[in-house]
């Protein structure tokens, strides 16, 4: 198979794994991540992130541009039962899909990754099946969800932060894959991206706990081919993010929510740290 063809195939898989990550993540936030429904679904979301990462690393190594727009995740949203059945169908379909792709490639690592995505999808299907079997009739007929408690304007602000952090995080991940051959920089960017995932989770959970679908939409992902320019742009984006968060910290509404305030303080400190690290990386790379 030609490299371009292989990159196209892997990019379609990447978009699917991205879709699964978002679907399970958002579902788990609606359920609440620390209960019998939310916790196992969050666990699946994390495994889908590995699946994304392995594919992204291979695409970057092959010199490809990773596809960062997620595919659609088809599911029947009627109730918990129908949703879980959709997840089972989705994961079961991936087993022959990935096995077939694995047969077509010669590279031992790529083959192993695709085979693993196949068998882990099979295990995901089994785990969702177990959840569905355990659901009470009442729970199977209903949907998770909550009423909005926070004011609309504040929730809109949080939604904007979800969208901004999500895009910034994706840019970091993309660069960690694309610049993987340029010393330690790629790894450092992935390290920062993991912190950003946590920061994103703080905003996203609050949005979902208020019954809203989090605005996890790709706004803008820069596709830099030059590492120095990428680092410089990241620094600028993070400075803007930090300034917005410092302003948000001072708002009266923010001051009313102690838990949120604590997480925001953490994010602000981490952003300042990341900016300083990026400056050093640009100087020393
Ligand atoms: Fe997966
Ligand atoms: Fe899966």
Number of helices: 10
Compute the number of structural domains.
2
Q: Calculate the terminal CA-CA distance, rounded to whole Å.
A: 35 Å
CATH homologous superfamily descriptor of the largest domain: Ferritin, core subunit, four-helix bundle
Please tell me the overall pLDDT: 96
The main sheet comes to: none
CATH architecture of the largest domain: Up-down Bundle
Work out the strand percent: under 5%
Classify the helix fraction into a percent range: over 70%
Low-confidence stretches: none
| Outline type | flat
Number of strands: 0
Radius of gyration (CA) equals 20 Å
- Structural class estimated from helices and strands: mainly alpha
Summarize the structure in words:
This protein has ten helices and no strands. It has about 280 residues and is mainly α. The protein folds into two domains: about 140 residues, Ferritin, core subunit, four-helix bundle (Ferritin, Up-down Bundle); about 130 residues, Ferritin (Up-down Bundle). The model has no long low-confidence stretch (mean pLDDT about 95). Helix content is about 75%, strand content about 0%. The site of one fe (ii) ion (FE2) has 5 residues, from helix 4.
């Amino acid at each position: 198979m030609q490299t371009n063809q292989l990159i196209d195939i892997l990019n379609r898989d990447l978009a699917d794994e991205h879709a699964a990550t978002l679907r399970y993540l958002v579902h788990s936030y609606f359920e609440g991540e620390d209960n019998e429904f939310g916790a196992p679904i969050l666990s699946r979301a994390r495994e889908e992130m590995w699946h994304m990462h392995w594919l992204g690393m291979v695409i970057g190594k092959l010199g490809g541009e990773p596809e960062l727009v997620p595919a659609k995740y088809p599911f029947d949203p009627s109730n918990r039962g129908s949703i879980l059945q959709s997840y089972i169908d989705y994961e079961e379909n991936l087993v022959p899909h990935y096995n077939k792709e694995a047969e077509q490639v010669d590279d031992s690592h790529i083959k192993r990754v695709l085979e693993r995505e196949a068998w882990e999808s099979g295990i995901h299907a089994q785990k969702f099946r177990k959840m569905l079997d355990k659901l009470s009739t009442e729970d199977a007929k209903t949907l998770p969800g909550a009423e909005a408690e926070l004011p609309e304007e504040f929730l809109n602000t949080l939604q904007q932060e979800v969208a901004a952090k999500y895009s910034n995080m994706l840019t970091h991940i993309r660069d960690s894959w694309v610049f993987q051959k340029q010393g330690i920089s790629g790894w450092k960017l992935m390290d920062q991206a993991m912190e950003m995932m946590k920061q994103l989770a703080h905003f996203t959970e609050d949005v979902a706990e208020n019954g809203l679908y989090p605005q996890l939409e790709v706004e803008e992902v820069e596709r830099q081919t030059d590492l120095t320019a990428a680092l410089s742009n990241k620094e600028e984006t993070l400075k803007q993010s930090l300034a917005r968060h410092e302003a948000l910290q001072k708002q009266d509404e923010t001051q009313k929510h102690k838990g949120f305030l604590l997480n925001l303080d953490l994010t602000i400190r981490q952003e300042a740290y990341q900016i300083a690290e990026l400056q050093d990386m640009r100087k020393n790379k």
